[in-house]
Amino acid sequence: MEARQSRRTIETVESEMPEHERDFVFTNADFARIRALIYQVAGISLSDHKRDMVYSRLARRLRARSMTVFGEYLDYLERSRDESEWEAFTNALTTNLTSFFREAHHFPILADFVAHRKGPLSIWCCAASTGEEPYSIAMTLQEALGANARNASILATDIDTQVLAKADAGVYSIEQGKNLSAERLRRFFLKGTGAHAGQMKVRPELRQMLKFGRQNLHEDRWAVQGPFDVIFCRNVMIYFDKPTQGRVLEHFVSLMKPDALLFAGHSENFTYVSRSFRLRGQTVYELANGAATRGAAQSAPAQTEAVREEAS
Fold first, then answer.
1. Which site in 50, 59, 102, 140 is 20 to 30 Å from 75, CA atoms measured?
2. Which run of H or of E encompasses 247?
């Protein structure tokens, strides 16, 4: 409930400005072009009620480039090969709402699952945002496995390079850690002093479990390679249309070990999109029998080094 409320609050603030007070004219044609472009590059489907949010976020890009109309900016995007501006465009339109141990019911399931695994563990968090989710996964592994957690690796990716840089740094405000227990704060974080008072930083032994890199799930070819024991893909599919969801899920099949788990967000239901998965628990999925056979045949040894490290 808190997460959903936060998203509504953000969008309400961004839509408060009346249209006649805006700095730039924003037409239906502009919005339609933006919807087409972000779907083309990231697979994100923007609904009509996102119009005010889109204006608010992209108006900053017009100001940054000293442009006066949306058409000029969109023409520039379509005609140029300016990768940095395409990246800024995509970053502006992605939503990064996260917190430590969000949707907490998943983590005891993860702890129990990894405790019964043999051999090195490979986990992919494909929407890492500012890092709270992959670090929560790492904390869970250390608590469940103790010294054996050193044999686990976590690949944390996102399409947004700005949030990946924050995740890679592993620095948070004390307020962001308010829901963590005193024991977790002591064990996994360093408390800032002096100029860094009010901040906390992930301890090196936790940070070294993670590798950050950029991955666009909408791309036909992924740099990510499996097989993985666990994939976290939470609150991502809600931004995709059903054909895109289906393509992403089928790609997951080829990257999962036959008995691997896929964790989804609270409002996502994959059984209506793909027959390759079956529900195992509350928003936790496993491969269906036929898909498990396909996944085993397609998977290669884990080589997560193939992902480009954009955050470093």
1. 50
2. helix 242-255
pLDDT for the residue numbered 2: 35
Find the mean pLDDT for residues 161-183.
Answer: 95
- Among 138, 135, 132, 153, CA closest to 225: 153
Q: Which of 30, 52, 158, 168 is catalytic?
A: 158
How many helices (H) and strands (E) in the chain? Answer: 12, 10
- Tell me if residue 259 is catalytic: no
**pLDDT by residue (tens digit) across 243-279?**
999 999 999 999 999 999 999 998 888 888 888 999 9
DSSP-H helix ranges across 2-152:
2-14, 28-42, 51-64, 70-79, 83-93, 106-115, 132-145
Distances (CA, A) of 108 to 137, 236, 271, 281, 290: 10, 22, 23, 12, 28
Strand ranges, E, within 236-281: 256-264, 277-281
Cβ contact 97:68 at 8 Å = no
Q: Which of 57, 150, 203, 207 is catalytic?
A: 57
d(C-alpha 250, C-alpha 253), whole Å: 5
Reduced to 3 states, what is the DSSP secondary structure of residue 285?
strand
* Percent of the chain at pLDDT exceeding 70: 86
By C-alpha distance, which of 106, 119, 117 is closest to 232? Answer: 106
**φ, ψ for residue 69 (rounded to 5)?**
-140, 150
In residues, how long is the chain? Answer: 312
- For the question of residue 234 being annotated catalytic, the response is no
Distances (CA, A) of 167 to 123, 170, 201, 259, 280: 17, 5, 11, 29, 30
Average pLDDT, integer, range 158-168: 94
CA–CA dist 236, 233 (Å, integer) = 6
Amino acid at 225: Q
